[in-house]
Amino acid sequence: MITKSFDTQSEAIISPQSFYGEQQHICDIAIGTFSREIYAAVLDRFPNTVATEIKAANRIGPIHLLDIGGQKVLFYLSEIGSTLAATLVLEINWRTGADKFILFGSAGSLDRELTAGKYVIPTQAYRDEGMSYHYAPPADYISVKNADIVAEIFSELGLPYIKGKVWTTDAIYRETRNLVSARKAEGCLAVEMELAGVQAVCDFHGIELYDFLVTGDVVDQPDYTPDGLHEANHDLGKFYAALEIVKWLRNNADIR
Question: What is the DSSP track for the chain?
């Protein structure tokens, strides 16, 4: 069973070193976006170079080193889905030495009244995916341990937000009404596709994750429409919020 996949009694056969050699150290902080439009806009606005590449059979993904007012930060377009997004974090960590990742994305709201006009700062993620069960003991939820830091930063900036649980699922087309009702009853504010697996990988490897979301479409409505999803996906304001987390990290941590 998948709940028996967390093996701490034997060594992993494959590691990033198998493909990339010795671990490199370029920059401590990485920002990942899931939006092709934000990705293109940021590369157009800020000087950047390609720091390294992550290679797979179907694509080569560049990892950029941005220069933002003389400060360096890595930037990349994340894969979608828990397994791919989490694996990419691990490989970028190996290729660049980045051990602080800021990820932002969109989510489906489970309660429009609670999330409208606010960032969602996840505190726990329901593990309705497969990746996390290989990196953490089985449980329904995984804690998002840096939620309070993100909330502190947003409070200082006056950014509206709500903290709470979210639901991570790999199966966008199997978000049924009964499952939505069950997650809402447990206090979940939104549904997304990556966080549980990414957080589990980060915890296992000692990587710090700072995550926030913007809701667009509303899953809990009588007749579903994707209204609001495009704006939630591609709003450039999320990148500038991520830069504020970078500033906080540089002021409060030992950053290279």
Answer: -GGG----SS--S--HHHHH-S---S-SEEEEES-HHHHHHHHHHS-EEEEEEEE-SS-EEEEEEEEETTEEEEEEEPPSSHHHHHHHHHHHHHHH---EEEEEEEEEES-HHHHTTSEEEEEEEEEESSGGGGTS---SEEE-TTHHHHHHHHHHHT--EEEEEEEEES-GGG--HHHHHHHHHTTEEEEESSHHHHHHHHHHHT-EEEEEEEEEEESSSSS---TTHHHHHH-THHHHHHHHHHHHHHHHS---
